[in-house]
Automatic annotation (TrEMBL):
Residues 14-40 form the SpoVT-AbrB domain. GO terms for molecular function: DNA binding. It comes from Paenibacillus kribbensis. This is Regulator. Pfam families: MazE_antitoxin. Gene3D superfamilies: 2.10.260.10. It comes from the Bacteria. InterPro entries: B_subtilis_Trans_State_Reg (IPR052731), SpoVT-AbrB_dom (IPR007159), SpoVT-AbrB_sf (IPR037914). Signal peptide: none annotated.
Length: 150
């Protein structure tokens, strides 16, 4: 912290003008919230940028803030969103087509499948995963999912 040599009078409403030179070197914009710090014992106070909670959730701007679905957003970000500026959708995950065989099989509940799998595992303890899958008419992936539920 250094002494700037700049002084400003406090007006009758308790206001003070922060010199433009200071605003510029601190990167403080008009309308930006500032926070006061004080040390009563030392008779010293300071002003700093206040940044938590009152800035745009997307770009951290302090200007033209509005609540949108419970989030603070600035006017520019809202305009950008409206115009799809910088919007890049995440590609939808590729859903594997179910095998032809599965389409005919009536979808059974996991519980039914687990019971059938338990029975098969008792009857054929040495069978491989793909054999269980074939007997139950489900994919091998489904069998390993079901095994985790056992
Ligand atoms: Zn913004």
């Amino acid at each position: 912290m250094k002494r700037t040599g700049m002084t400003r009078p406090l007006d009758t409403l308790g206001r003070i003008v922060i010199p433009m030179e200071i605003r510029n070197s601190m990167g403080i914009e008009i309308g930006e919230p500032l926070e006061f710090y004080m040390d009563v014992e030392q008779g010293f106070m300071g002003i700093g940028k206040y940044s938590s909670g009152v800035s745009c959730n997307l770009c951290k701007s302090f200007l033209d803030l509005t609540y949108f679905k419970g989030l603070l957003l600035c006017k520019q970000c809202i305009l950008d969103l409206k115009g799809n500026v910088g919007v890049r959708p995440i590609p939808a995950p590729i859903v594997k087509e179910p095998m032809h065989k599965e389409k005919k099989v009536k979808r059974r509940s996991s519980q039914e499948l687990i019971e059938s799998l338990k029975r098969l595992m008792r009857e054929h303890p040495t069978a491989k995963q793909n054999e269980y899958a074939e007997w139950l008419g489900v994919s091998q992936g489904r069998i390993s999912q079901l095994k985790k539920l056992l």
